[in-house]
Every structure is written in structure tokens, then in C-alpha cells.
Amino acid sequence: MTGLRLKDQPASERPRERLVAHGADALSQAELLAILLRTGLQGTNAVEIGKQLLQKYGSLHSLARASLENLQTVRGIGRDKAVTLMAAFTLARKMSEELRGEAPLLDTPEAVAGLLREDNRVRDVETFQVLLLNTRRRLIEVVRISEGTLDTILVHPREVFKAAISANAAALILTHNHPSGDPSPSEADIKVTRDLIRAGQLLKIDVLDHVILGRATTERPRDFISLRELGYFV
Fold it and tell me: Which domains does the chain have, with CATH numbers?
């Protein structure tokens, strides 16, 4: 692939100059990646490399999940550029965590999904997490209980409620992700939920909901489901 190097392009077409003149929102995804990557191989500019990355991975979501080794399989991406990309996506995720603020109120499935969405977006295996809450339904802590394969997770009530008791939590919300993108609950998800509800009743710790995160589609505008909303908590 050939093309002008960035320094040979008109100033108005260079991503950095365009950002200064028009703001970051005016740039394409490839142009924003180009600012991180700067120039690429001889005869290949950074915008072209950005386009290659987007073509290979299909979306920023998939690109953010790529490993350092996998990123370096793209022509023009060496170790340093791969490290820069991974650092940028990690910073974006950490900024999202900061924006959550202190002790968010988690009284709706939407609030739960908003809290965990960015963190779960880059996970490629099912990860079961528990949100520990105080009496006002505000977050005490997010506790990771287990990680599984693409299809199964292993959850034991002992681990769930050990964390809740240690944090003096009044209630908790169960959460996990479906890397396939479809948040519909499996039979195993339903069974785990019912087992943990019963355990919580014995320990006087309310299990308020089980929120499963996936990805939104045109047919499914919400990227999560609530088992309480589906009627599994009656």
C-alpha cells in the first residue's frame, strides 16, 4: 500500500492540524488512531495504518480487546505503537471509572449496566462479579468472584457471601457478561441466580438483581438484561 507521508500532506489534511482547527469530534476513527501512531512504514502514513486496524478488527471495541502480540501482526505496528494503543484504550477505560463518581446509586438495571459497561466491553470470557451495596443502595465495592470460558462460569455461594459479610453489605447485585454479545440468560444463569437468592435469604442479605451484559444490536437496543425484570425474582 502506498500513500503520502503525513508531512507531505497539506496541513489542512493532517490529523493533528485538523484537530486543532476543528476539534477532536471532527476527526474520523482512523484519523484519531493516526495521531497516536504518527507515521508508519516508508510510503504508508498513519491514517492508512489506522484504516488497516479498523478493517482488521471491525470496531474500536474489538481493537481495544486485542493483545500486544496480535496488534503487532498489522503491517506498520511495532511494539511501541502497540503499547501506545493499549495505553490509550486503558486510559479511556480508567477515565470511565473515574466518571462514575463516588458511591454511585445502583437502584436500576440501567445504573448497573452503566457502571460496568466499559470494563466488561473488553472481556473475552465470562466474568462473574458482585456489586456490594449499603442500606441506601449505594456501591461499597465491586468484587470479582470467578472467570470462566465463553459458555460457563463457576460460582459458589460461599465466595459470594464471604465478600458481602466482610464488607458489611446490606444487599448485593449479581452481574456477569456474555462475550457472545447476547445477554439472554442460560439455564445455568437462572439456576445460579435462584441458588444465590436462597442463600441470601438465609443470611439476611438481599440479592436485588442479576444483570447480564452483552452488546446492543438494531434488533436489541439494550445491551443488558435484568433477571428481576424477566420475573426470576418472584
Answer: 6-97 (1.10.150.20), 102-226 (3.40.140.10)
